[in-house]
Amino acid sequence: MNSVAKEQSFYNGFCEPATYQPLKNVPEGLRNAQGALYPYIDSDRRVIDFIKPVALTELENANLQMYNSESATEIYRNFLTWLFATFGQTEKDFRQQLLSNLSLQKGMKVLVTGCGLGEDIPLIMEMIGPSGELHAQDLSKAMVKAASSLHSQTNLYFSVSNGNSLPHPARYFDAVFHFGGINLFGDVRKAIAELERVCKIGGRVVFGDEGIAPHLRGTQYADIAINNIKLWESVPPLDLLPTNALAIELKFILGNCFYLLAFTPSDGFPEMNIDIVHKGIRGGSARTRYFGKIEGVRESSRKKLYDEAQKRGVSVHDLLEEMLADKLPDWEKD
Questions:
Q1: Residue 187, exposed/middle/buried by CB under 10 A (0-12, 13-18, 19+)?
Q2: Which of 88, 192, 211, 327 has CA 20 to 30 A from 30's CA?
Q3: How far, in Å, CA of 195 to CA of 296, rounded?
Q4: Order of strands, sheet of 109-113, starting from the edge strand that comes earlier in the sequence
Q5: What are the start-end ranges of the E strands in 16-88?
Q6: For the whole model, what pTM was predicted?
Q7: pLDDT tens string 243-254
Q8: Element (DSSP H or E) covering residue 9
């Protein structure tokens, strides 16, 4: 990617996190229409800080303080070492398995939220190649600075930002990935909605976090796990998925102590033809049964109606339509 294309891609990939409006490039960083500056925090102008002008919730502030501490990166790395040793899996194999759920191809645009120290970056860059584009985001400035210092690809961009208000335009990415932090977000529904918002229709959103599988709950295995790490008590937020989520997949991984949820954004609700007519005594369609509800009748009248429909060999729906046409002079069949 040449320098002009790189710069254009950089500005196209970011926007005002509150309003999603375009940002103006200035020497110090990116500025919104109201004059607020989102500054560069690196000499290579690849890392933008979107946190300072944005208000955070109490929980998000607590997380920010924890992950921005001087020992944060060491604590994080120590936890990962313990985690993979506990479940007898190499970190590289595990991350490759996770990322395989994104079905990445050369040239794709990808977003990783909660990127931590950027361990997934080399694997993703290999999958999307130099013609692709990768954005890595985290709430922790310490984590982002550490990750950006380790990776210098020209088609890789970083932001310090809030996962509940991502600084990216709608439908920009082919794939969006998050693992290991969504349970701690201030508003999990909003966080998932943001993952969906920035993903293209037909793209893939994959996210996961601590949450022991239901069939293990109540066992000593689960009790030991949850006693050790309270967050393993969490449950997959299936009820918080957007209504336009299709091809939903739920998996449990790493000793069934973590969940992984994947879905594809669509244009709306799942496709359902509500005008297909049912065969049988009741008849009608999903549309007429829902929108055509009428006042109830006596049980004896309902029985007579069904008996008459059976005698004539028609559905109750068609019999009612016939009776309405006969008794109501202004009635017209749609």
A1: middle
A2: 192
A3: 46
A4: 47-49, 156-160, 133-138, 109-113, 173-179, 199-210, 258-265, 245-253
A5: 24-26, 29-31, 37-39, 47-49
A6: 0.87
A7: 999 999 999 999
A8: helix 3-13
